[in-house]
């Protein structure tokens, strides 16, 4: 290539580069690109000998309009402090709804006391006294029943009967089912028997076949032991337990209660004890909660000691007071 051709090519490249740079600058300042840019000083070019000052780019207004609430402090609502009188009233209301805690539960008890007296004079001098008390508490989960009885009879100055019977039952429900676990124990003192004191305790499972308002039918089965302290066989005797309870509040004035417990010895089922209790209550007056009670208790021992009968039956008519 000749020297003239090289100079022409270099001039062409320089012009193309200048045009390209001018177009890019015009795009940046908003002037539409032209092939021939205006020359300073030409008419109608709007370009003087001095470069035309360009306006500065518009800056964004980051100020927050007044009244928008964006920069305003949030409103804090102050809660007034309760007065001493309000605090005391709240505490008094809470104490009224919450029963005080104690080692012994005082509420939910159904207690009763009974008294019966029978006597004769003349050719036969006799007097029979029967007293008793019952303490029962039932909740949604537990049943506690404690009964105390005393029978005392004198004939012509001679003691014909003198015994004290104490029976205690405790049941614990197993959730919402009809099953329960129980502990059943008893203490018997009888002056005219061959032992000084008899104690027995049993535990097992019970089932409530019917447990509705005013009606209860339940059975139980368990195992335990008994001992006749001061008796001929002063030792612990393992025994089983099979029992049933029936309670029926017939109406507002009549109530029927029947219980039966069968205690056979594990060594020999022909050696057994039974305790049967039947009573009927008739409400005499609602205000003092006074009732008339007719009852009978039968205690049977299949193998009594010598010179003693296997059966002991007590029947009575008593006044019953519930509190």
Could you walk me through the main structural features you see in this protein, from its secondary elements to its overall organization?
The protein is mainly β and 323 residues long. It has a domain of 214 residues: Nucleoside-specific channel-forming protein, Tsx-like (Outer membrane phospholipase (ompla), Chain C). It contains 2 helices and 12 strands, in the order ααββββββββββββ. Strands 1-2-3-4-5-6-7-8-9-10-11-12 form a 12-stranded antiparallel barrel. Strand 5 and strand 6 form a beta hairpin. The longest helix is centred in the N-terminal third of the chain and has 27 residues. The termini are far apart.
Mean pLDDT: 80
CATH class of the domain at 109-322: Mainly Beta
Q: H/E series, N to C?
A: HHEEEEEEEEEEEE
CATH architecture of the domain at 109-322: Beta Barrel
Low-confidence stretches: 23-36, 44-48
Q: Strand content of the residues, in percent?
A: over 45%
Q: Helical content, roughly?
A: 10-25%
Named CATH topology of the domain at 109-322: Outer membrane phospholipase (ompla), Chain C
Overall 3D shape = globular
Strands ordered across the widest β-sheet? 1-2-3-4-5-6-7-8-9-10-11-12
Largest sheet: 12 strands, antiparallel, barrel
Q: How large, in whole angstroms, is the Cα Rg?
A: 53 Å
Write down how many β-strands occur, each being a DSSP E stretch of 2 or more residues. Answer: 12
Structural class: mainly beta
- If helices are DSSP runs of H or I spanning 4 or more residues, what is the number of helices? 2
The CATH superfamily of the domain at 109-322 is identified as: Nucleoside-specific channel-forming protein, Tsx-like
CA(first)-CA(last) distance = 136 Å
């Amino acid at each position: 290539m000749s020297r003239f051709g090289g100079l022409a090519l270099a001039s062409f490249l320089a012009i193309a580069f200048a045009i390209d740079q001018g177009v890019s600058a015009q795009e940046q300042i908003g002037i539409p690109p032209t092939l021939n840019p205006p020359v300073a000083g030409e008419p109608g070019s709007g370009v003087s000998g001095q470069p035309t000052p360009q306006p500065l780019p518009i800056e964004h207004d980051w100020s927050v309009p007044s009244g928008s609430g964006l920069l305003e402090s949030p409103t804090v609502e102050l809660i007034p402090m309760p007065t001493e009188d309000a605090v005391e009233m709240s505490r008094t209301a809470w104490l009224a709804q919450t029963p005080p805690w104690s080692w012994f539960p005082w509420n939910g008890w159904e207690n009763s006391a009974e008294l019966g007296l029978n006597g004769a004079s003349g050719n036969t001098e006799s007097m029979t006294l029967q007293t008793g008390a019952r303490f029962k508490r039932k909740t949604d989960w537990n049943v506690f029943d404690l009964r105390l009885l005393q029978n005392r009879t004198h004939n012509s100055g001679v003691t014909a009967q003198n015994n004290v019977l104490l029976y205690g039952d405790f049941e614990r429900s197993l959730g919402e089912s009809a099953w329960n676990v129980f502990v059943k124990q008893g203490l018997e003192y009888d002056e005219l028997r061959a032992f000084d004191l008899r104690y027995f305790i049993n535990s097992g499972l019970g089932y409530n076949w019917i447990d509705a308002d005013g009606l209860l039918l339940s059975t139980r089965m368990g195992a335990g032991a008994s001992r006749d302290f001061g008796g001929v066989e002063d030792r612990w005797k393992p025994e089983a337990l099979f029992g049933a309870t029936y309670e029926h509040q017939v109406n507002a004035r009549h109530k029927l209660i029947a219980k039966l417990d069968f205690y056979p010895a594990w060594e020999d089922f022909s050696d057994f004890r039974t305790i049967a209790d039947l009573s009927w209550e008739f409400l005499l007056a609602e205000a003092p909660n006074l009732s008339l009670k007719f009852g009978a208790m039968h205690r049977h021992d299949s193998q009594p000691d010598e010179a003693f009968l296997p059966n002991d039956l007590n029947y009575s008519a008593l006044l019953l007071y519930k509190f």
